[in-house]
Write a structure and sequence with these properties.
The complex is a heterodimer.
Chain A (H helix, E strand, L loop, with lengths): L13 E5 L5 E5 H4 L3 H8 L8 E2 L5 H16 L6 H14 L4 H14 L2 H15 L4 H8 L7 H10 L15
Parallel strand pairs in A: 1-3
Antiparallel strand pairs in A: 1-2
Helix pairs in contact in A: 3-5, 5-6
Chain B lengths: L2 H8 L11 H9 L3 H6 L5 H8 L1 H15 L5 E7 L6 E7 L7 E6 L18
Antiparallel strand pairs in B: 1-2, 2-3
Chain lengths: 173, 124
Amino acid sequence: MAAATDDAGDSNEMIRVVSSDGEHFEMPEAAANLSLVLRHMIEDDCADAAGIPLAVVAAKPLAKIVDYCTKHAAKSSGLTIEEAEELKRFDAEFIEVDTDMLYDLLVAADFMGVEGLSKLAVQRTADLIKGKTPEQNRETFGIVNDFTPEEEEEICKENEWAFQITKPPSRLC
Amino acid sequence: MAMSNKRRKILSPSRAPELVPSELVTEILLLLPVKSLTRFRAVCRDWAALLSSEEFVSLHTAKVEAGAALAPPRLLFLTPTAGYGSTSAYSCSLSGGHDTNHLFTLDEARVNFVDSTKASCRGL
C-alpha cells in the first residue's frame, strides 16, 4: 500500500477499516477522507488500531472501494492532462463489474459517501438499463408489476414509439 | 449517525437487488433519455408516479439542458411521408456523416400543419 503515500495529502497515516464480514483493510488517510463517513469518524477520533467497523459493507465491495479511494487520493490535486486521462481510464475499467458487484458498489459508495464513485456507479447503472424493457427493469430492481394487464397495455399503446427498442436509442429522444 | 438505521436495513445481508434505495433509483433515472423514461412508466405504479411528477420532470429538464450546452447541436427536420398523409421528424448532426435518426412519425398530420417549439413541452 506504499503507492499512495508519496503525494497523498498532509498525512501519511494509514487508516484501518473492517468489513461487515470481518476483513481488515488499510488505506492512507487522504484516501479515507474521500469517504464522508470515514472522514467524520477520523475527525471524531474514531480511527484507531482496531479499525473503523463498517457493519454494512462486505469485504468484496470494500476492497474495491479502498482501491478506488487510494487511486483517487494519490492523484487528487494538480493533475496533468495525461494523469486526468489515466484516471478516467482507471474509472472506466474499475466499473466494468458484474451486476451484483455494481449494486454492491452503488449502495456502499452511497452509504460511505464516496461521491465520485457513487456518480460512477449511478452512471454505469443508467447505461446498463437504458435500452431495457420494463420487464427487464422489474427483474433488475426486484419490482413487482402492480398494473393490471389492461393498464399496462394502455401505457404501452399511448407511448408506442418508446417501446420500439430494436435499434439503439438515439441521443435526442 | 441518524442515517445508519435506515441504511442498515437496506444493506441487510440478503442481497436482493430491490434493496437499491429509492433516492439512488431516482438519480439513475435522471440520467436516462426521455424514450427510456417513457417506456419505464410501464414498470410499476411507483415509477409511473415518479416519472410523471413535476419535480422529476423539472430535475430531468435541468439535467438535459446542462448536458445540451456541452453537446454539439443537431438539426431537426420534418418531412412528409411517401403518402403525404403523415409527417416524419428526423435529426442529424451538422457535421455530416450518416447518423440521421428517425425520431417519430405523426400520423394524419401534414407537414404544413406541424409547428415546433424549442421549449420543453412537459411531455415527459
